[in-house]
Design brief:
With 286 residues, the protein is an alpha/beta fold. The chain folds into 2 domains: 27-158, 3-Layer(aba) Sandwich (Cobalt-precorrin-4 Transmethylase, domain 1), CATH 3.40.1010; 161-277, Tetrapyrrole methylase, C-terminal domain (Methyltransferase, Cobalt-precorrin-4 Transmethylase, Domain 2), CATH 3.30.950.10. It has 12 helices and 10 strands. It has helices at 2-17, 46-54, 62-65, 69-72, 81-84, 95-121, 140-143, 160-168, 185-188, 196-201, 217-227, 256-260; strands at 31-35, 57-59, 76-78, 126-130, 152-155, 179-184, 206-211, 233-238, 247-252, 269-273. The strands form 2 sheets. Strands 3-2-4-1-5 form a 5-stranded parallel sheet, with helices on both faces. Strands 6-7-10-8-9 form a 5-stranded mixed sheet. The longest helix has 27 residues, at 95-121. It is globular, with a radius of gyration of 25 Å. Mean pLDDT is 92; it is low at 15-22. Bound molecules: S-adenosylmethionine. S-adenosylmethionine is lined by residues 38-39, 131-133, 136-138, 159-160, 163-164, 211-212, 237, 239-241, 267-270. Residues 38-39, 131-133, 136-138, 159-160, 163-164, 211-212, 237, 239-241, 267-270 line the site of S-adenosylmethionine (SAM).
Length: 286
């Protein structure tokens, strides 16, 4: 009997000290990258909202979280960006300072990811929330570097381009466009030959969709004017999808700069250029 008591005491300590011994192995959690859509919960998918519900930890910028307060009640919410993201414009720094800051930020990011991996190992589900669709211009992919693809699931979201085209009531593929180009001013202007795309693409009937373009609107339009006819349609959609704030301005390469002058907004706007804005949406038999 005493032997039995001794044996069970030893067994108890083994179970306590060795993780996983005598207990069911913990199933690792998932790291979800969740696209919230362009304009609050009405534009989020059911899957995005369900994923928020089952997450143990939510990573999110406060501005993005704001319209989703009702879904975040009682949740552990953390903003990872102020510590990890370099707020000062990296491009403005001299090369050596830029390199040093990037290295430091990458080091901090790697340490952060190690913490997230430890949480996943403990079985926690983590949801990193992002605006629009996560696969288009999202800094979240930098944040997630180092995570194994098997532990990641991406929840697609409605992108700003879709909301902008809906506001314009036109298909981006209309006007006999041969392709739709999603770009940003930074990638549209080439590093060595800034006008390469503007010049080359002018050969094709296409739709150009610019993200983060409002700050560069003047440069974009004056560059496009060199290679395209002045009557090429252009539209700017501010706050696409927001019932109170959405604003559509239509024009051409000739007059869009004058038409948008009154609007100060420098971030929440999509610039669309192409015959899709005025041409036929879909032609039977083509
Ligand atoms: C960093 S990108 C993120 C894009 C996002 N992942 C998406 O799929 O829509 C931010 C840019 O997207 C555009 N954007 C995002 N939401 C928007 C909205 N509701 N209305 C207009 N533009 C929007 C703006 O051009 C903004 O500068």
């Amino acid at each position: 009997m005493r032997l039995l008591v001794k044996l069970s005491a030893v067994l108890f300590w083994i179970m306590l000290v060795l993780p996983g011994v005598g207990t069911a192995a913990t199933t690792p959690g998932k790291f979800y990258l969740v696209g919230l859509g362009p304009a609050g919960p009405e534009h989020a998918t059911l899957k995005a909202l369900e994923t928020i519900k089952k997450a143990d930890l939510i990573l999110c910028h406060p501005e993005l979280a704001e319209p989703f307060q009702a879904y975040l009640q009682g949740k552990k919410v953390m903003d990872p960006w102020p510590d990890l993201w370099p707020e000062q414009g990296l491009r403005q720094l001299p090369p050596a300072a830029r390199q040093a800051l990037v290295a430091e930020k990458n080091r901090q990011r790697d340490a952060f990811i190690k913490q997230m991996q430890a949480r996943l190992q403990r079985g926690e589900n983590i949801a990193l929330l992002t605006g629009g669709d996560p696969t288009v211009y999202s800094r979240c992919f930098w944040l997630m570097e180092g995570l194994d693809d098997n532990s990641v699931e991406i929840i697609p979201g409605l992108g700003a381009v879709t909301a902008a085209m809906a506001a314009l009531k036109r298909p981006s593929t209309g006007g006999q466009a041969r392709f739709v180009l999603l770009t940003a001013a930074n990638s549209f202007f080439g590093p060595n030959d800034p006008e390469d795309l503007a010049r080359d693409l002018a050969r094709y009937n296409s739709t150009l969709v610019f993200y983060m373009g409002l700050r560069h609107l003047d440069r974009l339009i004056t560059t496009l004017q060199k290679y395209h006819p002045g009557d090429l349609p252009v539209a700017v959609v501010y706050y696409a999808g927001y019932p109170e704030k959405e604003k559509v301005i239509r024009g051409t390469l000739n007059d869009i700069q004058t038409k948008v002058k009154a609007y100060q907004e420098q971030w929440w706007g999509m610039i669309i250029v192409g015959r899709c804005l005025t041409g036929s949406g879909f032609t039977l038999g083509e």
